[in-house]
Amino acid sequence: MPEFIPLQYSPLSEEEQQRRATAFFEQCQRRRTVRDFSNEPVSRKLIETLIMTAGTAPSGANRQPWKFVVVTDAALKKRIREAAEKEEKESYEQRMTDQWLQDLKVLGTDWHKEFLESAPALIVVFSSNYELENGGIHKNYYVKESVGIAVGFLLAAIHNAGLAALTHTPSPMNFLQEILERPENEKPFLLVPIGYPMKGALVPDIGRKKLNEIALWR
After folding, report:
1. Tens digit of pLDDT for each residue in 80-121?
2. What are the sequence ranges of the domains in the chain?
3. Hey, is 50 helix, strand or coil?
4. How far is Cα 39 from Cα 196, in angstroms, rounded to an integer?
5. pTM for this structure?
6. What superfamily in CATH does domain 34-196 come from?
7. What are the φ/ψ torsions at residue 123 (nearest 5 degrees)?
8. What b/e sequence results for 57-96 when a residue is b if at least 16 CB atoms lie within 10 Å of its CB, and e otherwise?
């Protein structure tokens, strides 16, 4: 039989619920993807706390199929940038459709990824479809969904801590597994550069969809 423990829960008034929800929304509304980082370092303790927060996310059968590899070594960041730019250049010049390239114009991006070196830390997120346990294979469940939720927790935690970040998905990403010497069962899921924004950093003048465009009541 499974074991259970009491839920730690403190009820809130409806007013306090709304106050907290509004404050969190307003904080998240200020979150922006940043590509211009200062060279100010981020403490290891802070990064570890952010990752522990990501690790509180729910997962299929509580298998927690994620691994967060933090890269601060300059030589490793340079290798990652060079490998990523090789794939990105091919994507921008050959793989992406005209519609995709047109949609990216508003963001002002191209295959150059300086932030992979300028950001003080890169958090490379890996997903695991299975674990090697007791000499055998133990399957994980709802892996993409679970890791995606954990990344959402991570991004919110990064913003809450006063740091900037972006989500980078060079395709294909197999070079990350090789450079970071990860085992066969771990596959690159996402690359998240984090740090402090450079003084005077600019972001695209874009907006987010309104409530009536993303929510329906039935």
Report:
1. 999 999 999 999 999 999 999 999 999 999 999 999 999 999
2. 34-196
3. helix
4. 8
5. 0.96
6. NADH Oxidase (3.40.109.10)
7. -105, 110
8. bebeeebbbbbbbbbeeeeebebbbebbbebbeebbeeeb
